[in-house]
Write a structure and sequence with these properties.
Length: 162
């Protein structure tokens, strides 16, 4: 799953690079309003979603890609436990949201599952530092996971089930 799809650029990379059997794309798109005020370039949530539908038409029809329009807090509970091989997380970047998302995702991963994410900022002065804090707090509370990668250089991080 990719949670926080935005305009779908990374979704194409995931499909082309990893070639998953099925990729669940979870994002609230227009439920957040008409536009993303923080986005660069085209800010329309509807435009982004319609572009994703066009871009992934073949994959949507074959069900290699499945769209879930909604907030991940609402969508994740609908998946069975131990469902995902991996989840890529790139949402609000707020500490509280990220911590809750990690808890929800952890129950939905297979025993060999991996959580990967964006915006790794160890510096507390950075706007998205909440992701770093949430991941560290999640790891301190949940002994079932190891941090297997994190880099302030490429802003990526990964956790794997032990």
């Amino acid at each position: 799953a990719e949670i926080g799809v935005h305009k779908g650029q990374f979704s194409r990379f995931l499909i082309d690079t990893i070639s998953p059997q099925r990729l669940h794309l979870i994002d609230p798109w227009y439920l957040m309003g008409k536009e993303w005020t923080w986005a660069q370039g085209q800010k329309s949530t509807i435009f982004a979603l319609t572009n994703i539908i066009r871009e992934f038409e073949k994959e949507l029809i074959s069900q290699k890609v499945v769209l879930h329009i909604g907030y991940d807090f609402d969508m994740l509970p609908s998946f069975p436990d131990s469902y995902f091989d991996w989840v890529y997380l790139d949402t609000s970047h707020r500490y509280e949201d990220t911590l809750l998302e990690l808890e929800l995702i952890s129950n939905k991963l297979k025993p060999t599952g991996v959580i990967v994410g964006d915006d790794w900022y160890p510096d507390p002065s950075q706007l998205h530092h909440g992701v770093f804090r949430a991941v560290k707090d999640f790891l301190s509370r949940n002994q079932d996971f190891n941090e297997v990668y994190s880099s302030p250089k490429d802003k990526q991080w990964a956790l794997a089930k032990k």
